[in-house]
Design brief:
single chain; Rossmann fold; two-stranded parallel sheet; 14 helices; about 40% helix; globular; binds adenosine-5'-triphosphate; binds magnesium ion
Length: about 300
């Protein structure tokens, strides 16, 4: 069965799409057949993997409305092993139209049955709200990844997300669990970064991925070229961070080892951004002084 992972945080602009796009592209590059599902009417994940929204006839809207099958709506990208179930502005209508539809929380889950076993990994980019689109995403998924922007208000609103997650787990999807929390846009020149990492770690413990994503201009430039970072800036520090994150993520899913051989490229050398004090050697510290931050102790 495919691993289905929702990238979700109802807070806007925290790096959900950037993380979903780049993790999907890197996993695909490692030989893992990956489907990226864009559940956001903004369609940023769709354009982020180079698919022109204007040229699309079908999108996830048609699927949720029962007008077309999932196989008809999925499109391939120019990247090997990477497919997308695209979205565009019409999806905004679905938020309202779904309200009166039977089994409205399970529309996506039910249609995923048609592609069972066809993909190794399915990643869902959720919109910045806890509406029916997000609920469809969470009801379809076995795992949740929470991207958190490394800023003063990082934990604001998280109570609501965790509460929604618990509600969905108790009432709609008992199988879902938190795979991890990704810190995004980390600027380690600031004292604030350390404080936020400490606070987030005391809230989520070892659910926080050791690989955090630095704030970097190249990361924000890539979407305007419709290309993931591994192609836009293969040796950049943002790309290295996403490779490291993806490896950690795939290991948590148990996908890394089984698919390593199938990869189209050699695994790249990576540097964790957050390294635990027990395991960081002096040499590693010196090498990663640009991006490594000392992990705060666990509560
Ligand atoms: N690590 C980073 N460094 C610099 N800019 C970044 C980084 N991550 C994301 N950005 C930029 O921040 C903005 C928000 O990122 P993104 O679209 O991934 O967030 P989101 O949570 O998906 O937003 P929304 O809630 O609107 O869907 C984008 O302009 C993106 O290019
Ligand atoms: Mg987004």
């Amino acid at each position: 069965m495919s691993d289905i992972v929702a990238f979700c945080n109802q807070k806007g602009g925290v790096g959900k799409t950037t993380t979903a796009v780049n993790v999907s592209a890197i996993a695909a590059d490692k030989g893992i057949k990956t489907l990226l599902i864009d559940l956001d009417p903004q369609g940023n994940a769709t354009s982020g993997v180079g698919v022109d929204k204007n040229s699309l006839e079908l999108s996830v809207y048609h699927l949720l409305m029962g007008q077309n099958s999932i196989k008809e709506c999925i499109v391939s990208t120019s990247f090997k092993n990477l497919y997308v179930l695209p979205s565009k502005a019409e999806l905004t209508g679905a938020e309202l139209e779904l309200i009166d539809i039977e089994n409205r929380e399970y529309r996506l889950k039910n249609s995923l049955k048609d592609i069972e076993g066809e993909y190794d990994l399915i990643i869902l980019d959720c919109p910045p709200s806890l509406n029916l689109l997000t609920i469809n995403g969470l009801c379809s998924s076995s795992k949740l990844v929470i991207p958190l922007q490394c800023e003063y208000y990082a934990l604001e609103g998280l109570g609501q997300l965790v509460q929604t997650f618990e509600l969905i787990r108790s009432k709609l999807n008992p199988d879902i669990e938190i795979a991890g929390v990704v810190l995004t846009m980390v600027d380690r020149r600031t004292k604030l970064a350390e404080q936020v990492i400490s606070e987030v770690t005391s809230f989520f413990g070892d659910k926080v991925f050791k690989s955090a994503i630095p704030r970097a201009v190249r990361i924000s430039e890539a979407p305007s070229f419709g290309t993931p970072l591994i192609e836009y800036d293969p040796s950049g520090k943002g790309t290295k961070a996403f490779i490291s994150l993806t490896e950690e993520f795939l290991t948590r899913l148990g996908l890394q080892e089984s698919k390593k051989e199938a990869g189209s490229s050699e695994p790249k050398k990576t540097t964790p951004i957050i390294e635990s004090t027990e395991t960081t050697t002096q040499t590693e510290e010196a090498q990663s002084s640009e991006t490594s931050v000392e992990s705060p102790s666990q509560p």
